[in-house]
């Protein structure tokens, strides 16, 4: 089954937060003759997204046109604070998460999952500078600052920026085996160990 893999984009999204997972899932799919992940980007409205430091991206879909996701990726960046004040976007995340097999946050994308009520009772992490902020938004979650990522089954949260690559490779390994993830990491020339969230 080729899994729909949706990556949310928004103004001031951290570039590597979304580009790392995009590369991992896209490369894995390409190396498997495009049979594993249908990767696409989603934004609130049509038009260009201005990511951190001025990178411009044109998303594939709006919230209304996006297919239902099997894998949902919520990246972080300064722009997540504006998302927390958008009930319709938070509700879209909540609805997509209900049907998704895997939900992944990177960096402060965890704040959006917290606002959607998806982190209650879980072991979670985010960027080291935002751990207290996450704890306030998800008071019943157990916030950890010493792990690259946490795997709670359906919901995975990764620490800052480059940790999104680690958690995405971990998801590939979970769904398609260590060999597929290792091939992807080797192609990316990325040093990866599948140790389920090694300490930072």
Chart the SSEs and their pairings.
Elements: E1 3-8, H1 15-31, E2 37-43, E3 49-50, E4 56-57, E5 61-62, E6 71-74, H2 80-83, H3 87-99, E7 102-106, H4 109-115, E8 123-124, H5 131-137, E9 142-143, E10 149-151, E11 155-158, H6 163-176, H7 178-187
Parallel strand pairs: 1-2, 1-6, 2-5, 6-7, 7-11, 8-9
Antiparallel strand pairs: 3-4, 10-11
Report the structural category: alpha/beta
Q: What's the CATH first level?
A: Alpha Beta
Question: If strands are numbered along the chain, what order do they take across the biggest sheet?
Answer: 5-2-1-6-7-11-10
Average pLDDT over all residues: 96
DSSP summary, beta strand count: 11
Note the beta-strand portion.
15-25%
CATH superfamily placement: Class I glutamine amidotransferase (GATase) domain
Spatial gap, N to C terminus: 34 Å
Show unreliable segments.
none
Order of helices and strands: EHEEEEEHHEHEHEEEHH
Computed CA radius of gyration, to the nearest angstrom: 15 Å
Gross geometry = globular
